[in-house]
Please model this.
Amino acid sequence: MNEAMRHLSRSLRYFYAGDFRESLKEVDLALELQPDLALAYARRGSIYYKLGDVQRATINWNLALRLDPEYDDVRNILKALHENRLKTASMFEE
Model:
């Protein structure tokens, strides 16, 4: 679990630096180690959104919500996306 969290931490640094491809690689490594991390799917959704792939973003956000039904940030972002008022996917940067 600690190694997976280290990858997520690195992914966040890349995300903030605007290097979404490297951020995605780190999230994928985290998910290989810990496939049930809702935060990782949420982050991957945000990365795909930043890369312009709304379909993959939505899939990952839904996976995060399935793993953690109480994940209100994900629920809110999916609602905003559905209502066409999503401007930025800067959530999940915790």
Summary: Helices lie at 2-17, 20-33, 38-50, 54-67, 72-82. The first helix runs from residue 2 to 17.
